[in-house]
Structure formats: structure tokens, C-alpha cells
Amino acid sequence: MNVNPTRMVMTSLKKKLATASRGHKLMKDKRDELMKQFLELAKKNKVLREEVERRLGEVYSNFTIASAVMSPQLMEEALMYPTQSVDLSVSTKNVMSVDVPEFEFSSAQEGADNIYPYGFAGTSGELDKAIARLSEVFPVMLELAAMEKEASLLAQEIEKTRRRVNALEYIMIPQLEETIKYIRMKLDENERGNQTRLMKVKDMMLAEAILEKQAADEAAMEEYERQHPAG
Amino acid sequence: MYKIGVIGDKASVSGFKAVGLSVFPCADSAEARKTLSRLTKEEDYAIIYITEGLCRDIADELDKHRDKMLPAIIPIPGMDGSYGIGMTGVKKSVERAVGADILFGND
Q: Which regions of chain A are under pLDDT 70?
């Protein structure tokens, strides 16, 4: 860093360094905890996704059979007016200062306990099965959605935090340390320079004083010799 | 109150209508892209499921919403089976967080 090597600057840099190290430690802790939570979540997420995919596959195969048995028009007609409507409410959950959504759904039904939006006359049993299965899978799909979103948000936060940790660890803190060292050396150097200069000045003053003294002595000697001419 | 949307080919998504979701049948990925951007603009939809066959070509559109809290755009397998795109999303998250793929290395 390009700074003036003064005591003032050094003090402020030292303060900055203390803050940076503290921040680094905190960030590191945050990253580790996030990572821990994320890994657990990702494992669960994987299992859940496998389950949803498997169960949806079953639902689809039921639908396929149903559509093979029924005519397309009839099928479309049967599914056209749903008796259920789903209301989704979203609340947020705070995981390590990351806001993640939580989904809660309530399905309103028109007919009592009737998930089938059609009369049974023209439809095949396979369609009933498919829809029953689908409404079973549906809550799991919601869970999957919440979990996957949480995972991707956490991943983003981890990435950000890791970047910050690295920036502090490998750039900010070494740079500060380097600069502080530079200022300290510069100040020490100045101190030594001053010391030597003082010593030098002292020597010069001493030499001058001695010369003056000698001159005074000689003058006194001459004066004495003049007053008492050698007899 | 939020809604849940499903985007996909007609054959795959028609069943979801019966459980009370809003279904948007799309024939191709261009249509899916349009529908998706319309739904995300409306902000009524907290979750949008989209079948894998369609989201393959509009991954960039999906990535736009990856870092936002809502909506959650979740790929699901379609009638023609899973292409593993949903799993790839999970994998991507892991790679992003850890820097390397450590959960899925074995399979």
C-alpha cells in the first residue's frame, strides 16, 4: 500500500488489521457452519429428489395407461375443472443470516374428500390411481422445492463468504501486515538517523569546545609570559 | 397468497391440474421461455415446476432466478423420463459451495 510512513498512519493501520483479523475469524466460522448445514441439506436433497423422480415416474406411467384406455377428449374433459385449489403461503426462515423460503400449502376442496374432479362414469380406474398418487407426491414435491431453493441460496452464500474469507486471508491481512512492517522499519530508520546525527553534532560541539578551551589556555599562557618576562 | 405453476408438455402436466396447480402447457422451449418470464414477472408464483425436456434449452432463464428467494424454479421429470437435469442442479449447488463435487462422486 502506498502510505506516508508516520506514526498516525501506523496506528490506524494497526486498528484496521485488528478488525480484519477479527472479521476473518468470524467469516471463517460462518463459512464452516454454513458448509456443515449445506452438506447435510444437499445429502437430503439428493435423496428427496430421487424419491420424487421415482414417484412421479409411477404417476406418469399411470397416466399413460389411463390415456391409452380413455380418449384424449374425455381425459381432458375429466381434468378440466379441478375441485381442489392449492393456496401456498411463504414464510422465511433464517439460516445463518440467509433468508430461505418455507412453503406451507393448504388445499381447499369443494367436494368433501373428493380429490377426483370428475364423475366416475366415463373415466378409467387408472386415472383415479394416477391422481391419487399425484396428490400424495405433491407434498413431497413442495418439500423438494423448498429444500432445493434453500440449497442453492446457501451455496450462493457459501461462495460469497468463501470469497470474503480468501480476500481477507490472502490479500487484505498480508498487505496490512506488510505496510505496518514497512512503516515500523521506516520509523526505526529515522530514529537511528536522528541518533547518529545527534552523536555527530555532539562530537562536533565537543571538538569545538576543546579548541576554544585550548585557544583560551594558550592566550592565558601568553598573557602570563608577558607579565612575567623570563628572568 | 402464492400460486404454484407447472410448465411442461401437455401430456406430462395435465394431471397436475387435478391437484389444483396452475398448469401452462407449452409445446417447445421458446414457448416455455416466454411463459416462464411471464410467470416470474407476475410474482404470484412462489414455485414453478418445469419439466426437464423443456428446461434443457432455457437453462439461462432458470439461472437468472437461482439467487433470488422467490420463485423457486424446480425441474421435474416429464412424461418421457428424467434426463438428470434436476440432479445436475443439486450437483451444481454442491460444486458451487464446496468447489468440488463430493457427494456425487460415486455414481
A: 81-84, 107-122, 231
Query: Domain range for residue B41?
Result: 3-80
For residue B42, name the pLDDT band (cuts at 50, 70, 90). Answer: confident
Asked if residue B101 is part of any domain, the answer here is no
Q: B92 lies in a domain?
A: no
Any domain includes B44: yes
Q: Which of B20, B74, B81 sits opposite A148 (nearest CB)?
A: B74
Q: pLDDT value at position A58?
A: 84
User: Is any Cβ of chain A less than 8 angstroms from the Cβ of B100?
Assistant: no
Give me the CATH number covering residue B41.
3.40.50.10580
Domains of chain A, residue spans:
7-179
The predicted-structure confidence for B45-100, as pLDDT tens digits, reads as follows 888 888 887 777 787 877 778 788 778 888 888 777 777 777 888 888 888 888 77
- Long-range (24+ apart) CB contacts under 8 A made by A158-167 are A158/A31, A158/A34, A158/A35, A158/A38, A158/B96, A158/B97, A158/B98, A159/B96, A159/B97, A161/A27, A161/A30, A161/A31, A161/A34, A162/A31, A162/B99, A164/A27, A165/A24, A165/A27, A165/A28, A165/A31
Q: Does B97 contact A67 at a Cβ distance shorter than 8 Å?
A: no
Q: Is the ipTM of this complex over 0.95?
A: no
CB pair distance less than 8 Å for A107 and B20: yes
When scoring A64, A75, A149, A160 by the number of chain B Cβ atoms within 10 A, the one with the most, hence best to mutate, is A149
Closest to A101 (Cβ–Cβ): which among B12, B69, B103?
B69
pTM, to two decimals: 0.77
- Under CATH, what is the fold of the domain A7-179? Helix Hairpins (1.10.287)
